[in-house]
């Protein structure tokens, strides 16, 4: 992993970014899912959700593309304005954060988190939140290194 944060430029995603964004869907699920989940089904739903947020632009949903100095897209950062369950204070939720495999280990994830924190502060958020699957240990390590703490555990009982 790089010790120096790369210089990134952020912009709102546009319809022309759809192919890049959808190419990252597999990366967002590149770990062992809970046994009751079906990878193919999850991937199809995720792609549909990404496409919907990109093209429909629901209120409070902001998809950003991070670009390098050459203008090449290097990451997706999807933020959603929300509120805290117990205090009602405004929060910003990191819905999706993805870096292509070829760019892994260059400090881009850390730079995305720092930028998301700045954006959240600028928008009056009291906290920056995210969800992570138990099998996504690489992401968990990144979040722990960047001072994220466990706040709420989501337990599921599949009904078949």
Write structural notes for this entry.
The chain is α+β, with helices and mostly antiparallel strands. 32% of the residues lie in helices and 22% in strands. Strands 1-2-3-4-5 form a 5-stranded mixed sheet. The mean pLDDT is 96. Residues 8-160 form the N-acetyltransferase domain. Keywords: Acyltransferase, Transferase. Pfam families: Acetyltransf_1 (PF00583).
Summarize the structure.
This protein is α+β, with helices and mostly antiparallel strands and 160 residues long. The chain is built from five helices and five strands, in the order βαααβββαβα.
Nearest-angstrom radius of gyration? Answer: 16 Å
Structural class: alpha+beta
Strand content: 15-25%
For this structure, the quaternary state is: single chain
Q: How many domain regions? A: 1
Report the CATH architecture: 3-Layer(aba) Sandwich
Pfam family, one: Acetyltransf_1
GO molecular function: acyltransferase activity, transferring groups other than amino-acyl groups
Organism: Metallibacterium scheffleri
InterPro entries: Acyl_CoA_acyltransferase, Bact_Acetyltransf, GNAT_dom
Pick out its properties.
single chain, 5 helices, globular, 5-stranded mixed beta sheet, Bact_Acetyltransf, 160 residues, alpha+beta, GNAT family N-acetyltransferase, Aminopeptidase
Fold topology:
Blueprint: E1 9-12, H1 18-23, H2 25-28, H3 39-56, E2 61-67, E3 73-83, E4 90-98, H4 108-122, E5 127-130, H5 137-145
Parallel strand pairs: 4-5
Antiparallel strand pairs: 1-2, 2-3, 3-4
């Amino acid at each position: 992993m790089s010790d120096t944060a790369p210089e990134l430029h952020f912009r709102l995603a546009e319809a022309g970014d759809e192919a890049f964004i959808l190419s990252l869907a597999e990366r967002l699920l590149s770990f062992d899912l809970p046994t009751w989940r079906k990878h193919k089904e999850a991937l199809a739903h995720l792609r549909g959700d990404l496409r919907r947020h990109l093209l429909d632009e629901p209120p409070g949903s902001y998809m950003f593309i991070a670009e390098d100095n050459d203008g090449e897209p290097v990451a997706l950062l999807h933020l959603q304005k929300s509120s805290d369950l117990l205090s009602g204070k405004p929060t910003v939720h990191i819905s999706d954060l993805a870096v292509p495999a070829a760019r892994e280990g260059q400090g881009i994830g850390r730079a995305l988190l720092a930028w998301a924190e700045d954006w959240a502060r600028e928008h009056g958020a009291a906290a920056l939140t995210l969800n992570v699957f138990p099998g996504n240990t690489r992401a968990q390590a990144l979040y722990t290194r960047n001072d994220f703490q466990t706040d709420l555990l989501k337990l599921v009982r599949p009904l078949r």
